[in-house]
Amino acid sequence: MATGTSKELKKVESSKRFEPRKIKAQEIGLKVLREPMDIEDTEVDIVAVHGIGVHPEETWVFKGNDVNWLKHETMLPAAVPKSRIMAFGYASYWFGDDAVKQSLDSVAKKLLVALKRQRKNCLNRPIVFIGHCFGGLVIQRAYTLAKAYGDDEEFSGVSDSITGVVFLGTPHHGVVGNSGLQTQGQIYQTIVQANVQVQDNVLHSMAENNQILVACVYDFTRLISGQIPGQQHPPKIYCFYEQKAAKVGLIAGIPGIPPEFVVNESSGTLNGHPKDALPLDHFGMNKFEDSHDNNYDSVRSVIVDMAEKSKALMEGREKGKAHSSSENGVINSREFLAIEGSPAMDPRVSIGRTIEADRARNPRKAPNTTQSSDGKYYIPTLAAPIALELYFAPRGKVLDDLEDKFKATMNVVLCGDMGHGKTHIAVEYAHKFHKKNRGCNVHWVNAGSAEEFELSYRRIADNLHVGNNRKGNGVLKAVCDALKQDGNWLMVLDGLNNTDTLKTTDPSDGMKPLLDFIPPAHLARVLITTRSKSLAMRMVNQKNEFVIDVSALKDEDASYLLLGTVTSEEAKKKRSLEVATCLGRSAGTLVMAHLYCKMARLTYKAYQERISLPDKPSTAWPSDMKAWSLLYQHIRETDKEAAHLLLVIGCLNVQSIPKAFFERTQIFQQIVHLIDAGMIEPSTDERVYTMTSLIRQCVQKWLIEKGERHIVEEQVLSIMNNKFAENEYDVSDVLLPCALVILKFQPKSTEGKRYLARLFARVAEYHVRLGRHQKAIELFEQCLTICKRDSEMEGFAIETRQALETTRNQLAQSKTGEKPPSEAKTLANDAAEAKKELRKVENDVGRDHPNTIRKMSDLAALKLAQGEKAGVAEALGSLKEILDWSKRKYGDNDVETARHQYNLAIAHEENGDYKNAAVLYRTAARTAESQLGPGHPELLRILGNLALIYCKQGDLKTAQQALNTVLRGQRETLGWDHPETLAMRQNAAMLLEEMGKVDAAGAELETVLGVQARLLGRNNRATLRTSCSLAMNYMERGLREDAERLLGDTWKVQMKVLGKDDQETVKTKRILDTMRGEM
What we know:
Elements: H1 3-10, E1 29-34, E2 44-49, E3 61-62, E4 67-68, H2 76-79, E5 83-89, H3 104-118, E6 127-132, H4 134-149, H5 158-161, E7 162-168, H6 184-193, H7 201-205, H8 211-225, E8 236-242, E9 246-247, E10 259-260, H9 265-268, E11 275-278, H10 294-322, H11 334-337, H12 358-361, H13 398-406, E12 411-415, H14 422-436, E13 441-446, H15 450-464, H16 474-485, E14 489-494, E15 525-530, H17 533-539, E16 547-549, H18 555-563, H19 570-582, H20 587-600, H21 604-611, H22 623-638, H23 640-650, E17 656-658, H24 664-668, H25 670-676, E18 681-682, E19 688-690, H26 693-706, H27 709-723, H28 729-742, H29 750-769, H30 773-787, H31 794-815, H32 821-824, H33 827-845, H34 850-866, H35 869-890, H36 895-910, H37 914-932, H38 937-952, H39 956-973, H40 979-994, H41 998-1015, H42 1021-1036, H43 1040-1057, H44 1063-1078
Parallel strand pairs: 2-5, 2-6, 6-7, 7-8, 8-11, 12-15, 12-16, 13-14, 14-15
Antiparallel strand pairs: 1-5, 3-4, 9-10, 17-19, 18-19
Helix pairs in contact: 3-4, 4-8, 15-16, 15-28, 18-19, 18-20, 19-21, 20-22, 22-23, 22-26, 23-25, 23-26, 27-28, 27-29, 28-29, 29-30, 30-31, 33-34, 34-35, 35-36, 36-37, 37-38, 38-39, 38-40, 39-40, 40-41, 40-42, 41-42, 42-43, 43-44
C-alpha cells in the first residue's frame, strides 16, 4: 500500500459518519419517466439501469442544472419521441446503515419481474437498455436468465424483445489491479474507521477474475455472438468507456481516496462490438448537461439508431423462427477450395466414365434449383414459388385442415375473393409439405392462362429432367408420364378461374384440356386456388367438404397482419381492428396498409384518418384502392422510376413476369424498391416476379381513371419488341405468356400499331421454330391485317407474306408424313448451322455484341458435344474469347464471369488439361460462393466437377473429401433423391470402387439406379449411364454374366433412345464387345 495514501487516510476522523440520502421503497423498481401522449404510438421501451452506491433518483441527474437527460423534454424524449422511457432502481448501497446484501442474480431477477409486470400488455414491444457501471452487468445477467427461462410464463417475451444495449462504463472484465479498486482495502479501512456497515457482495462481483463476473459476461457474449444454435438476430451492443480519472472513494461516498481509472478501455468494451471513449470520469458517464452536450450527442445517436432498427431486428427474429428448421447444412467449400496446387496425374485412375456427359452438350445451362444463399428452405422444384410470408395469418388451423382433407382426396380447393390470401395459404402449405416430405416434389402451376400453364409445365420438365421435345404436346405428355411414375407429390394450381380457356396452345394437337395432363396418382395432392365457387365444386366432384372458404379475416388475424406482430396492448389492438374494418379485413389490403405505415412512419390513428377522408365525386374508390393509392403515392414521391415500372408491370394480365423482361438497372434498383413496398414478390430463385391480382387490378383501375392506359401499353409494346427474339429459345419461352397478353393490346398511335405488327411477326417466327405452323399462320395473318392500314409498312408486309407462304408449305409438308429437316439433322449439321448463324449475327451487330457471344457459346457447346479433337480445340479458343469479353463487361468477380470460367474449365477437362481445368473451377467456385452463397446449387455443381478433376489427377483422398462436402450440400439443398444429387452419388460410388471398396460401390449404384429409374424413367440418359457403371462394377466383383446381361440391355435402350452414333452408345458397344471377347 502506497505510503502517501496511508497518510491521507489517517486524516479522516474516525468519528465522522457518511450518511447518504436514504432510498425509500417508493423509489425502487421500474419507474416510467416519459411516454408518448397517445400510447398507441409507442414503438420501443428504453430502460436505464444504474450502478452501485447511488440513489436511483439522483444517478441520471447533472448536478449543475438538475437536468435528468432521460426525461427532460429537450433530450432523450425528443430524440426518440415514440418511446416509453423507464428507469430501474434498486437498493445499491453496499455501505452505511442502509447497506443491503445484494447479488447480481437477485437484482437481475427483480428487473425481469418488474419488466414482466410493466409490459403485460405489450410483451412484444422492443426493449433498448442503458446500463451504467454495475447496471450493465445486471442487464447482461437479466438477458441470460430470460433466455434460460425461454417460454416460461414468468419472463416470456423479455429476451426476444431486447434489441439493443448501451453500456456506460460497465466493467465487463472486472476492475484490474492498477485501475482504481486497487484501493479496495483502503476503502474498507476508512469505512471501518468511520464505523460504517458494509455489505460487499456487489463490489466483489466487479473484481477482476471474479467467477460470477466471468460467468455472467461469458454467457452473455456467447448468446449475442450467435455461437449457440437458434440465437439468430441478437441485440445490438455499444460500449462507452471513460477517459478521465475518478475518485474511487465516491463509490462509498468517501472523497479522500486518490483519483484513478475505474473502468478503462480493456475492461469497459466487448470484443467484436462497436465502442467509443467519452472524456468523462466514471461518475460523469451517465449525466449530461443539455441537448448540446457533445458527450450526450454521442450516446443519443447510438440509442436512436438502436430504436429505429428495433422493429426490423424483431421481424428478422420472427422470420428466422419461421425457417429455423432449415438453417443447418450449409456447406463450407473453402476446405478444399483453398487447395491451389494440382496433384500429379495418375494415368491408372480412370473415373472418366462416370462424368456427366450432358455438361459438354449444354455447359451454359444453369441448375434448376431454388435454394437461397441465406440457408433457408425453399421448394426445389417450384416453378415460380413465393417465399414464406413473414406475417402469415394462421386463420385458426387452416394448414391442419388442409392436411386432414388430403388424407381423403386428391383435390382440395381454396376458394375466396381476390386479395383474401389464397395464394399465400397455398405457399405456406407447400413449404410445410416439403419439410415434412423431404423426398417428394412440389410443383407450382400458374393457371391464369393456357400459356402460363404450359410455361409452368416446361419448368417442371426441366426440374424433373424430362421432355426435351418442345414440339406439340411433348413437354406436357412427358411431365404427365413422370407424375404418373412418381406417385407422391404436391401440385399447386394457382389462379384457376376459367377452365374453358385452359386448352393446349398448339392447334395441331386438337386443343386438348390442359387439366387432362394432371394424372391421378397414388398419394398425389392437388391444391387449387380460385375465386369461382362453381368451379371449386366441379374440381372436387361437388363434394363441398373439400372446399375451404377463404373469407375476410377475423380479429386476431386481422390485427396481426396490420401490426406485423401479435399485440397484447388493448388500445393498439382496438385501433388496428378499427382500421382493419375500414379496409374490409382483406389480407392483401391489410398488408398494403402495414407496409405504408412502416414506410411513411405513420401511426395507425393517422392512417385511419387518411383513408376516412371523403373521396372526390369522380373517384369514389373502394378501400383496397385507397390503400393501394396511398402506397403508390409514397413510392412515386421517393422513386418515380419505380412507380412507373409498377404501372408497366400492372398492365400485364399475367401472374408472373420473368426477369428477362427487365433491364439490369431496374432489377437492382426499382425492382428492389417495389419488393420492399410489397407491390411485387420475387420467386425464391429470382427468375420471375409475381404481382397479386389485387394489386394488378388496382394498377389497371388507376390507369383507366387517369387516362394513361394506352400510353403505358405502348411503352410495354416497345419493351417487348426489344426483348422477344424468335431465335432465342430460353428467353422467348419465358417471355411468351407476356407477349401473348401484349398482343391483345389495342394501341391508338401509328407507332404503337407498328410495334404490335412486329411483335405478331416475332411471335409467329418463334412458333415456326417450334413446328407450330398453324399457330404461326394465324399470327402472321394478324400481322398483315395491321400492315394493310399503314403504307409505310409495305416492305415489312412483303417479308411477312413470304414468311407466311413458307410456313404454309411447311405445314402441308408435315401433313404428308415427311420428317421436318430439323429432326433429321446430325450433331455435325447442327454445328454447321450454328456456325452460319454466328457469322450472320456477327455481321449484323459486331463481334462484341451479347447476341454474338451467345451464338459463340452455343457453337462451342456443340463442338464439345461432338468430342472431336479439332472441335474441342476450336471450342477452347471461343470460350477463352468469351471469358475475356465477360471480364471486360462484368468484371472478374461477377457470377456471369464465373459461369464462363466454368464452361472453359469443361473444355480444358475434355481436352485432358486437368491442371488448367482445376484452376478455373476453383476460381469460378470462389466467385459463385461470394455472389450466390455457400449452399447454392450452381456452386455445388462447380465443386462436383472439381472433385472429379481430383479423381482424374489421382488425388483420391482430396476427391473423397470434396465429394462428401458436395453431397452434404446437395442433400440439404436439393434433397437426397434429386437428379443432380443422384449423379454425384454415382460419382462417389465409382470413387469407392477406385479405392478398392467394390461391394460398397455396387450397393450404392444399385440404390441410385433404382431411384433414377423411378423418378427419371429407364430411358433417361442419366439412368442409362448409371446402368453402365453398375455393369462394370459387376465385372469388378466377378459377376460376369450379370454384367454382360445388364450392359447388353442398356446398349439396346441406348440404340433406341440415343441412336447408334451417340458417343455413349458407341462407348457401351465397345465395352460390351470387349467383355464378350473376354468371356
